[in-house]
């Protein structure tokens, strides 16, 4: 598939994403450059918040919705209130709009999930393939299990704003707790390695 723009991060996405995921990325980029507008920005410490207005067509009617993107430039950390990345593992149109505003040339590796990469190796093979539906890594299996459960949640939550906001709030809390758990685990592993090293040299 050919690139639609001259942005470097689209060329990057073309190289790394599977065809299906690259098409999804292009759709987000096109929507970001066409239907999204940065209305306001606020500086707060190291974080800048952007208010993004998007024109959305619902049937034959146009609706304007607002989203908030938080951007930490130094680490290139970004989060959008639409939570597309948290739900589907792909940066949204609102984030891409902010990247363009801030001259971010390439997508940070942490936002390119391994399961969407076309060079991902699968099934004890040294060949690089686009996708292999009959074989999956442990990461893929865990992703499928969580996706199945989360689909049941979204089927209920998408019917009402109150339900939707409740789920998003719980996800934010869960994300914070998981980050703390991962950090704690990394510290424990690092400490264990130091102890093992000291024991072997004594």
TrEMBL record:
GO molecular function: zinc ion binding
Record flagged with keyword Hydrolase: no
Positions of the SWIM-type domain: 67-103
Membrane-spanning residues: none
Record InterPro entries: FHY3/FAR1 (IPR031052), Znf_PMZ (IPR006564), Znf_SWIM (IPR007527)
GO cellular component: nucleus
Cellular location(s): Nucleus
Keyword line: Metal-binding, Nucleus, Zinc, Zinc-finger
UniProt-listed GO biological process terms: regulation of DNA-templated transcription
Function recorded in the entry: Putative transcription activator involved in regulating light control of development.
Protein name (Swiss-Prot/TrEMBL): Protein FAR1-RELATED SEQUENCE
């Amino acid at each position: 598939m050919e690139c639609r723009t001259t942005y470097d991060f689209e060329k990057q996405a073309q190289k790394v994403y599977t065809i299906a995921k690259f098409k999804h990325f292009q759709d987000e980029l096109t929507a970001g450059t066409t239907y999204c507008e940065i209305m306001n920005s606020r500086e707060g410490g190291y974080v800048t918040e952007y208010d993004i207005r998007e024109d959305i067509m619902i049937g034959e009617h146009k609706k304007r919705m607002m989203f908030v993107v938080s951007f930490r430039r130094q680490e290139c950390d970004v989060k959008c209130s639409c939570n597309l990345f948290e739900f589907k593992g792909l940066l949204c149109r609102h984030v891409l709009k902010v990247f363009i505003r801030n001259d971010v040339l390439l997508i940070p590796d942490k936002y390119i999930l391994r399961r969407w990469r076309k060079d991902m190796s699968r099934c004890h093979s040294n060949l690089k393939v686009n996708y292999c539906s009959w074989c999956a890594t442990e990461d893929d299996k865990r992703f499928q299990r969580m996706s199945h459960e989360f689909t049941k949640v979204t089927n209920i939550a998408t019917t009402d704003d109150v339900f939707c906001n409740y789920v998003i709030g719980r996800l934010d809390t869960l994300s914070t707790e998981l980050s703390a758990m991962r950090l704690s685990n990394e510290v424990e592993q690092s400490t264990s390695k130091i102890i093992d090293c000291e024991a072997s040299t004594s």
